[in-house]
Automatic annotation (TrEMBL):
Name this protein carries in UniProt: histidine kinase
Pfam family, one: CheR
An MF annotation (GO) of this entry: ATP binding
Keywords per UniProt: ATP-binding, Chemotaxis, Coiled coil, Hydrolase, Kinase, Nucleotide-binding, Phosphoprotein, Transferase
Positions annotated as active site in the UniProt record: 31, 58, 150
Coiled-coil boundaries: 648-714
Domain CheB-type methylesterase: 18-201
Record has ATP-binding as a keyword: yes
Biased composition (Basic and acidic residues): 1-17, 481-493
Residue stretches making up the PAS domain: 843-912
InterPro entries, per the entry: Bact_Chemotaxis_MeTrfase, CheB_C, CheR_C, CheR_MeTrfase, CheR_N, HATPase_C_sf, PAS, PAS-like_dom_sf
Recorded superkingdom: Bacteria
Length: 1180
C-alpha cells in the first residue's frame, strides 16, 4: 500500500528546486574548535566552485569577530561579513556577525536579534531550518567541531527538505559534541574529514546529473525498488509518483557512489539499513505551525461557524489529520478550534486525531516539544496561552496536549476513523497517482459524517468519481461532503499466509499441498453473505484487518492511544475480549467464544464473541449476533459464562481502592518529580549557559591564539625588517620618551638599553635636539608627517629627519617615529646637480630661443599624432597659433597634407630611423606651396634602443626652388624635343631635295631657304622660352621683313601661337611666300599679298582662321600636281595640328585659308615629363 509523504510545502516546491540547476547553498555550522575546521574546509575550495558558503559559529556577542580577516587568507573566494538584506551569490563565503541570529528567505540573508538569552541560543539550528525551507534540495549542511547539540535539529530539516548533510568525522574534530549529536539524528549522508567534504560535494553534484537518465532508461527499476521496500519495511510505494521516487533514489545512489541502477538494487536487497535509509528519505517531514495562514483563516471564518452550529454539551467535535508528521498542524487546528469554541461558548468536547506511519515523527508529536523558532510561527497570544517556555524551546501545555491523540496508521491500508467533522490532509495526495488519490478520497468520504468538511493542499483536488465533495473555496481547497451514506470501503485485506513475503528476485515459497485457489470475487461474496463481522489481530493485539460491519463494535478512546483491539472495542466488550484472548493463549484450543449481554444502546442485547488462532499466528475475532447467519454449532465452545454481579461489584470496589492508592502515590511522585524537574531545569539552564559561554570563550580563545601567532610573526618580521633596513629609526611616545630604536640610531644618539622610558632630550646626541624636539611636538599636535634638514653640531654632516605620527590601532597619535638619513654626500651631489641644472636651464633657454626664432618651421607629435610643440614659423605656414597646435591632431591643423605627414611619422615610430627629404605639396595663404620635410625620432635619454616617444620634424619652403627646377626641366625637355623635331624636318627636306630632278644648285638654294625659315622660327620661340610667339612676329619675319611693308598687308587681333602652331604657321607662310615669289604676286613689282587672321565660333568650338590672298600677279591656274611645299604644309597643319587647308585658284590670285582649333593653336602644352608638379606628392 501507498505510504504517507509529509510535505507542507507547495507541490511545486521540490520540483522547482530540483530542476533549475540553482547553485548549492552550503550552511556550515561550528562552535569550539571551528576555526581550524573552517580553515581546513576552505582550503579545498577552487576558484570555479559555484557553491555559496554561509558560516555560522557561536561567537562572543561582546567582541568583534576576527573571522573575516583570518579566513580570507585561506581562500581566494571573497569572504563577506553578512549584512541585513544581503543577497547571496555563488562563489562567495558569508560569515555571521556576533550577537545576531541569521535567516534566509529566498536568496536574501536577514539578521535579527536573538529572542533567547545567552546559553539558550541555537543559531545553527535556526539558520539551517530557514535554509531548508528556502532552498529545499539545493540546500546542504555541514556540521564541524563544537560542543553541545546545536545543528542537530537543523540537519534534520535539511534532510527532510531533500538536501545533503555532511558531518566532520568525530575523530577528526577538535570537539566532537556537535558532530555526534548530528549523527544521532540519522539524517547525515556522510561523515568525512573536513578536508574531504568540499571535494565530495563537488563530485556528488557532478555524478547526480548522470544518474537520473540511467534510472529513467530502466523501466522496471522503480517497481523493483518499491517491491523491495515493501518487503523490508511493510510499506508499499508502487502507487507513488515516479518523479519524486526518482529524485530520492538518485540522491541515495549519488551518496553511495553508485552509477548503475542494478548496483543500487543489489545494495537495497542485501543491506537492510539501506532500505530503512531510503524509507526515511521518502518521508519528508517538513511542516510548521499555521503554515499557509490564509487557509486557516478561511477555515475559521467559513467552516467553523457551520461546523460548530448545533454542537453542545455531550457532543464531540472530531478532527482527523492524516499524515500529521511531528504534530504542528494537529496542534494548530486544536488551538484554532479551542479558541473559536471558547468565543462561541460551545461546550462540546474536542477530539483531534493525528495519524502517520513515521514513528519518529509521531514520537516528536507526542512529546509536544518544539524549538524556539516556533515563536515566529505562532501568534504571541496563542504562544503564551498554549505553550510553556523551556530552556531550549517550547512545550505544549497539558490542556492542549489532551485534546490531540496521535497514533500510527497507514491512510490507505488501516481502518479509518468514523463520524469525523473535519479532515485536513494537505499536500499528501500530490505524491499519489490517480488511482491512489481516488482511494484516499473514498477513505475521507467514509470517515466524514454527512456534511463534514475536507481541506486539501493548494495543488490538490477532491474531484473524483461521482463528485461526492462540494467545492467551498477553490483557492484554499476546502470541500464539503455530500449527504449520501458512507460508501463501503474495499481496503486491502491481508491474506492468510504462513511465510512472510519474499524479497524481489527470490523464488516464491512452494504452495501448501492440496491448497485450492479461491478467486477474489468468490471470496468477497462468501465474506459478505456468510461471515459475521470480524477483526484480525496481530501478535501485539493491533488490528490489521476490519471486516464488514465490525466498525459498530469499535470506538476510539480519548487521550494517547494505540490501535490495539483492547483499547478500541466498545467498553462493554473489553473485559470479554480480554478473557477470550487470554483463554485462547493459555489453552490448547484453536477457538474460544463467550456469550455477552447488555452491550448498551445501539448494539444487540446478546451476542457471542469468538476468537481463533490462524496459521500465520494472527488471531481472528468474530462478533456473532442473532442477525448473523453463521452456523457455529460444530465449533468447539466454552461453557456459557454466568457473571456473578456481587463478585464483580466487590472486585470493582477493591480495584477502585487500589486505583485511589496508586493515584495518591502517583500524585506525590509527580509533585516530587516536578520539584526535581524544576531543579534539574535550573541546573541544566545554568549548565547550558556555562557551556555556551565556554564555547564562545573557546572560539574567542582560538581566534586570539591565531591572532597572537600572527602578531608574533609580524613582530618577528618587524624586528628583521628593522635589522635589515640599516636605517636609524627612533620611536617616541607622546611625551617624547624613548620607546624603541634600531642599532643604526646609536651612531646619532648615545643610546643604551636602559634608556628606554627616558626623555629623548636628556640623551646625548650629535644633532640639534631643540629643533628635533620641536619637530616631534609639531607632528604630535597635527598628526601630519614632517621632514626637517639638520646638520651635526660639528658641521661635518648633513641629515634629513623624517618624522611621522605613531598611530595606534584606533588611529590615534600615540607618539612619533622618526628616521635619520645621512645626506652629506647627497647634499654635495645636490649642489652639483643644482649647478648643472642651472647650466642646463640656460642651454634649454638658448634652445628655446633658437626654436622660436629659427627660420625653419619645426614641430613635434606624439604616438597619436597630436602636436606636442610647434614654433612660430610652423604656425605661420599652418595659419594657426603655436598655442592652438598643442594637443590637436595633425588632421585638424592641415588636413590636406595630414596623411602624408602621418605616414612619414608612423614610419619613424616603427623603424626608429630618421626620414629625410620628404617633399609635400599643399596650400598656404591660398597659394600652392612645396615644402621639404625631415622627420627624426625623439627617444628617452638612456632608454632602450628603438623606444621612440615622439617624432620631430622640420619644414622648409622650397616653392621657388621647385618652380625654377620645373622651368629648367621643361625648357631642357622642350629644347631637346624641338631640336629633335627640327632635325627631323631638316632631314625630311634634305631627303626631298635629293629626289628633285631639277638643277642641283636651285634645289640646294630652296633647301637652304626652308632650313633658314625653320631656324628663324626656332630663334623666335627660343626668345620666348619655347612657350608661345606672337603671330604678327612670325608673319613679319617671313614677309614684310623680306618683301617690304608696302607689298604685304597684315590684319588681325593680337594672337599668340604655341610652339607647335608657330612652327607650322611659320613653315606654311614660308612655303606660300616662296611660291608667290616664283609664280605668284611677288613675281611682279605690282604684286601684293594680304594676310588676315581672326578667331571665330560657329557653334562647334572656337577656330583660328588665317587667310592668304594674292593680287597683282600673273594669272593663276591650278597646278597639275602638288609639289613638296604643298605636301609639307598639309603634313604640319592637318597631320600635326588637326587643322584644314582650303585653296582657291582664282585667276586674279591664289587664295588659301588655314583653319586650326583655337585651343590646339594657342594653349601652352607643358611636357609632362618635366612638369615639376608631377614630382610632388599628390593632394589626397
Amino acid at each position: 500500500m501507498q505510504d504517507r509523504m509529509k510535505d507542507e510545502q507547495d507541490t511545486t516546491t521540490e520540483t522547482e528546486h530540483a530542476g533549475t540547476g540553482t547553485p548549492v547553498i552550503l550552511g556550515v555550522g561550528a562552535s569550539a574548535g571551528g576555526l581550524e575546521a573552517f580553515q581546513t574546509l576552505l582550503g579545498s575550495l577552487r576558484n570555479n566552485d559555484d557553491f555559496a558558503l554561509v558560516l555560522v559559529q557561536h561567537l562572543d556577542p561582546e567582541h568583534e569577530s576576527m573571522l573575516p580577516e583570518l579566513l580570507s587568507r585561506r581562500t581566494t573566494m571573497p569572504v563577506k561579513a553578512i549584512k541585513d538584506g544581503m543577497k547571496i551569490e555563488p562563489g562567495n563565503i558569508y560569515l555571521i556577525p556576533p550577537a545576531y541570529a541569521l535567516d534566509i528567505r529566498g536568496d536574501v540573508l536577514h539578521l535579527s536579534e536573538f529572542d533567547s538569552p545567552r546559553g539558550l541560543r541555537r543559531p545553527i539550528d535556526r539558520f539551517l531550518e530557514s535554509l531548508a525551507s528556502a532552498q529545499g534540495p539545493n540546500a546542504a549542511a555541514v556540521i564541524l567541531s563544537g560542543t553541545g547539540s546545536d545543528g542537530a535539529q537543523g540537519v534534520r530539516a535539511i534532510k527532510q527538505g531533500g538536501g545533503l548533510v555532511f558531518v566532520q568525522e568525530p575523530q577528526d574534530a577538535k570537539y566532537d559534541g556537535m558532530p555526534r549529536a548530528a549523527l544521532s539524528t540519522g539524517a547525515v549522508d556522510m561523515s568525512l574529514p573536513a578536508s574531504d567534504i568540499i571535494s565530495v560535494l563537488r563530485d556528488f553534484h557532478t555524478r547526480v546529473t548522470g544518474i537520473t537518465p540511467a534510472i529513467e532508461s530502466d523501466a522496471e527499476f522503480i517497481e523493483k525498488v518499491a517491491r523491495t521496500l515493501r518487503f523490508r519495511t511493510g510499506h508499499d510505494f508502487q502507487g507513488y509518483k515516479t518523479g519524486t521516487l526518482l529524485r530520492r533514489i538518485s540522491l541515495r545512489m549519488s551518496v553511495l557512489g553508485l552509477e548503475r541502477p542494478s548496483d543500487y538494487l543489489r545494495k537495497l536487497i542485501q543491506d537492510e539499513s539501506e532500505a530503512d535509509r531510503l524509507f526515511r528519505d521518502l518521508l519528508i517531514n517538513v511542516t510548521s505551525f499555521f503554515r499557509d495562514r490564509a487557509s486557516f483563516e478561511m477555515l475559521r471564518k467559513k467552516v467553523l461557524p457551520d461546523l460548530l452550529d448545533g454542537k453542545g454539551q455531550g457532543d464531540e467535535v472530531r478532527i482527523w489529520i492524516p499524515g500529521c508528521s511531528s504534530g504542528q498542524e494537529a496542534y494548530t487546528l486544536a488551538m484554532i478550534f479551542a479558541e473559536e469554541m471558547s468565543r462561541l461558548d460551545c461546550h462540546a468536547r474536542l477530539a483531534v486525531f493525528g495519524t502517520d506511519i513515521d514513528e519518529e515523527a509521531l514520537a516528536e508529536a507526542r512529546a509536544g516539544t518544539y524549538p524556539n523558532t516556533i515563536a515566529t510561527e505562532v501568534p504571541d497570544e496563542l504562544l503564551d496561552r498554549w505553550f510553556v517556555a523551556r530552556r531550549d524551546g517550547y512545550e505544549v501545555r497539558r490542556e492542549l496536549r489532551d485534546m490531540v491523540r496521535f497514533s500510527s496508521q497507514n491512510l490507505l491500508k488501516d481502518p479509518p476513523f468514523s463520524r469525523i467533522d473535519l479532515v485536513t490532509c494537505r499536500n499528501v495526495l500530490i505524491y499519489f497517482d490517480n488511482k491512489l488519490q481516488d482511494t484516499a478520497l473514498k477513505v475521507f468520504h467514509y470517515a466524514l459524517r454527512p456534511g463534514g468538511w475536507l481541506m486539501l493542499g493548494s495543488s490538490e483536488s477532491a474531484r473524483t468519481e461521482g463528485d461526492p465533495f462540494l467545492e467551498v473555496s477553490s483557492e484554499h481547497r476546502i470541500y464539503q461532503r455530500d449527504k449520501a451514506p458512507a460508501r463501503p470501503l474495499d481496503l486491502p485485506r491481508q491474506r492468510l499466509q504462513t511465510l512472510p513475503p519474499s524479497p524481489p528476485g527470490n523464488e516464491r515459497p512452494r504452495e501448501r499441498e492440496g491448497a485450492t485457489d479461491i478467486p477474489d470475487a468468490a471470496l468477497d461474496a462468501l465474506l459478505e453473505r456468510h461471515v459475521p463481522p470480524y477483526l484480525i489481530l496481530g501478535p501485539d493485539d493491533s488490528i490489521t484487518v476490519v471486516g464488514r460491519g465490525a466498525d459498530r463494535f469499535l470506538k476510539l478512546p480519548e487521550g494517547r492511544t494505540t490501535l490495539g483491539a483492547g483499547a478500541i472495542v466498545v467498553p462493554a466488550l473489553r473485559q470479554a475480549l480480554k478473557r477470550v484472548l487470554t483463554g485462547l493463549s493459555l489453552g490448547d484450543h484453536s477457538y474460544r467464544r463467550i456469550n455477552v449481554t447488555d452491550l448498551g444502546e445501539g448494539l444487540p442485547e446478546t451476542m457471542t464473541l469468538g476468537a481463533a488462532i490462524l496459521r500465520d499466528g494472527t488471531r481472528l475475532v468474530t462478533f456473532e449476533t442473532a442477525e448473523s447467519s453463521v452456523d457455529t454449532s460444530n465449533l468447539e465452545s466454552d461453557t456459557q459464562i454466568v457473571i456473578d454481579d456481587d463478585y464483580v461489584a466487590q472486585l470493582e470496589s477493591e480495584l477502585d481502592s487500589a486505583r485511589q492508592t496508586v493515584r495518591t502515590t502517583v500524585e506525590e511522585l509527580e509533585t516530587s518529580n516536578e520539584e526535581l524537574k524544576s531543579s534539574n531545569e535550573e541546573m541544566m539552564s545554568m549548565n547550558e549557559e556555562l557551556q555556551s559561554a565556554n564555547e564562545e570563550l573557546s572560539t574567542t580563545n582560538e581566534e586570539l591564539q591565531t591572532k597572537l601567532s600572527e602578531l608574533a610573526r609580524a613582530n618577528s618580521d618587524l624586528a628583521n625588517f628593522m635589522e635589515s633596513t640599516q636605517i636609524a629609526t627612533v620611536f617616541l611616545d607622546s611625551e617624547l620618551k624613548l620607546r624603541n630604536f634600531t642599532p643604526e640610531a646609536v651612531g646619532w644618539f648615545r643610546f643604551v638599553e636602559q634608556d628606554r622610558g627616558r626623555d629623548i632630550r636628556d640623551i646625548g646626541t650629535r644633532l640639534d635636539m631643540e629643533q628635533l624636539a620641536e619637530g616631534c611636538k609639531s607632528v604630535i599636535r597635527s598628526g601630519m608627517p614632517l621632514e626637517i634638514a639638520l646638520s651635526t653640531m660639528d658641521g661635518n654632516a648633513d641629515v634629513m629627519v623624517r618624522i611621522a605620527p605613531y598611530l595606534t590601532e584606533a588611529r590615534d597619535a600615540g607618539g612619533v617615529v622618526f628616521s635619520i638619513f645621512d645626506v652629506t654626500e647627497l647634499s654635495r651631489y645636490a649642489q652639483a646637480a643644482e649647478k648643472a641644472t642651472a647650466q642646463a636651464e640656460a642651454r634649454m633657454e638658448e634652445l628655446e630661443q633658437f626654436y622660436r626664432v629659427s627660420p625653419t618651421a619645426m614641430g613635434v607629435v606624439d604616438h597619436e599624432y597630436r602636436y606636442i610643440r610647434a614654433n612660430p614659423q610652423l604656425a605661420a605656414i599652418n595659419g594657426v597659433s603655436p598655442e592652438d597646435h598643442i594637443g590637436r591632431l595633425m588632421t585638424e591643423i592641415v588636413p590636406d597634407v595630414a596623411d602624408s605627414k602621418i605616414n612619414a611619422a608612423r614610419q619613424v615610430f616603427e623603424t626608429g630611423q630618421p626620414l629625410i627629404g620628404r617633399i609635400v605639396r599643399g596650400t598656404s595663404g591660398g597659394e600652392a606651396h612645396f615644402w621639404r620635410m625631415d622627420f627624426y625620432p625623439l627617444t628617452v635619454p638612456n632608454g632602450p634602443e628603438g623606444d621612440v616617444r615622439a617624432v620631430g620634424f622640420n619644414v622648409t619652403d622650397i616653392t621657388e626652388i621647385m618652380n625654377l627646377q620645373a622651368d629648367l626641366r621643361r625648357i631642357m625637355r622642350e629644347l631637346q624635343h624641338r631640336v629633335k623635331n627640327m632635325l627631323s624636318n631638316v632631314i625630311a627636306l634634305v631627303n626631298r631635295a635629293r629626289r628633285e630632278d631639277g638643277d642641283p644648285k636651285v634645289t640646294l638654294d630652296t633647301l637652304a631657304q626652308r632650313i633658314r625659315a625653320l631656324a628663324n622660327t626656332h630663334n623666335l620661340l627660343t626668345a620666348e622660352n619655347w612657350t608661345s610667339a606672337a603671330l604678327r612676329d612670325v608673319v613679319a619675319m617671313e614677309l614684310s621683313d623680306i618683301y617690304g611693308e608696302d607689298r604685304v598687308t597684315m590684319k588681325g587681333p593680337p594672337v599668340r601661337l604655341n610652339a607647335r602652331a608657330t612652327l607650322a604657321v611659320g613653315m606654311a607662310v614660308h612655303e606660300l611666300a616662296t611660291n608667290a615669289a616664283k609664280y605668284g604676286a611677288f613675281s611682279k613689282e605690282e604684286g601684293h599679298v594680304q594676310l588676315r587672321w581672326s578667331r571665330i565660333d560657329e557653334g562647334d568650338g572656337e577656330t583660328f582662321v588665317l587667310r592668304w590672298q594674292e593680287s597683282g600677279g600673273p594669272r593663276v591656274s591650278p597646278p597639275e600636281g602638288g609639289g613638296f611645299g604643298t605636301v609639307l604644309m598639309r603634313s604640319m597643319v592637318e597631320g600635326t595640328l588637326g587643322g584644314t587647308i582650303k585653296t582657291d585658284w582664282n585667276p586674279e590670285g591664289l587664295e588659301l585659308v588655314i583653319e586650326l582649333p583655337w585651343a590646339t593653336a594657342t594653349e601652352v602644352d607643358y611636357d609632362s615629363d618635366v612638369d615639376p608638379l608631377r614630382q610632388a606628392d599628390p593632394v589626397p
